[in-house]
Amino acid sequence: MSRPRRDPRAERQSHDVGATGSRPRYDRSQPLPGRAGVPPIVAPARSGMTTQPQPAKPELRIVDEPAFLVFAVVEAPGGRLSRFDRQVLGAARLLADAGDGGAGVVAIASHSVEGLGEAGADRVLLFTAEAMPGTVAKALRQTVDALSPRHVLFAETGDSADLARRLAIALDEPLLANVEHLTSRQAVRAIRNGRAEIAATPPRLISLGEDRIKPYEAAPCEARALALDTAPHNDDPAILSVEFIPGDPASLALSETDFVVSAGNGVSDFAAFRDLATHLRATPGASRVVCDAGLMPRAAQVGASGTVLSADCYFALGISGAPQHLQGIAGCEHVIAVNTDLHAAMIERAGLAIVQDAQLVMPALLQLLRGGER
């Protein structure tokens, strides 16, 4: 009778939460494969050996009456969870499962979001996206007063970090900001410019640094809509209406945009490239070779010697993928690559690859974006 063999490399990879700079980070507080509902990692069997049957697809995890609640505030731009959002939900799941597993995670967002159940949310509470930050903070405080969560977690970035501080002032409670390490018993953050750190029992209000917690990967949760009248209402008579006006992608800095389409040495028709970027509503970027040649401005250079991106999507046209360029897109969640070289580093990095000449792909995409007109 055969025994399943451990795969140490796969186990180590299961703890990987991403890289900070050039150093990988591992979250050892997460359960090992084979425990707490996490499927075991088994190395492939040798030829002639019998293999263990694959584990069945996990059933939906349902918490009918949570012992307590943990709030996770997510931004989810475009209705999709970012990598940072998944880490916040993973941290909330970690705190909720610290006891007997009967607690619930409530995802709080400003609009409908895909994949909240798979990311670990038992309940979902939506706020109005058009409300002012102060009004959202007031509504969130009313929700905290009504449901009394044990913890409220935020991402230490952008609007989430601002909302965390507004809520801390409204509740007159301390906020442990930019937490670098979190377990059910301890939260650690750096002080004195990283020369020292402080550790404390996780308080109610916590904001997390990026790439500090591993996302939730166990059985999908219910993500049931929470019926609670917490719609933010603007009570300032000076404010007549609130509207979100997106910025022009062509004028946004590469460090501030969510979608970048970038040209490399395989692009020669830059008029078509700029036209494609306009139709995709993406910010144009370029490799160092293109900027050195004067074909794109230096501000458009992507890479370790240019701009390091945190975009949701990076579309590389004719870029082979030099190490410095790959460092610049390490924080991008989705990468699409077009290159004639099947073995190019950018093709390997991409989640979706098109092995073709960029000069042929660009007009074909433009035709589709224009509705099939020639």
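Second entry:
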Amino acid sequence: MKILVCIKQVPDMESKFKVDSEGKWYDQTDLAYRMNEYDEYAVEQAVRLKEQVKDADITVLSIGPERVKEAIKKALAMGCDRGVHIKDDEDYKKDPYQKANIVYEFAKDKGFDIIFTGMQSQDRGSGQFGVILAELLGIPAVTTIVGFEYADGVVTAKRELEGGKKAIVKVKLPALFTCQLGLNEPRYPTLPNIMKAKKKELLTHDVSEFLKDEALVETVKVDYPEKKGGALILEGDIADLVEKTVQILKEKTSVL
């Protein structure tokens, strides 16, 4: 079984963000970076599947500048077999469609049986990459999975729906799965596995080898959230509060 895991390196969400000089993204200097949290669940599920089927082989792939190799090395220490770094110093300027096309060009002739991605990235949060990649490859996509079982070429996945509801989906491989928080508990790389990871294959390709399509979406401007006035707190008898609330809505809004 051939498994591909797509991961992204993102800033630590506790970082202090500033809009960059172009006003189209955040300033990437002086930020601490880590593997996207959703992708950690994808890596863990891939490694668990390998432990189950024994003959599986896991490739972990990431697009980005030189620093993304640190995220790839963590995935290798968690149990992936080889890493692929598609070097792109301006990956943040590419939309999900363009990135999915880059991975498609890499993966289209590799015969992957199963692909794991995170449900979304913590910085952009579009949730589009995985389903676009599956569409390009012509395979089913099962999104926001919180449960995963494999047997005889069929995956039974539990999907998270709105309102706390779940759906059970069965799909034959090849297929792609986007992983939601809570799917599993990602393992912490041990020191021996970190040392083993240093000897694992990590190939680097320039993005120009796979870049075929133009972006469909352009980020025009990034700005800070607009500051608005404070809340109005009403106190007193319930009947009076209702009357005051209705009056405020009439005078200050277009709701009534």
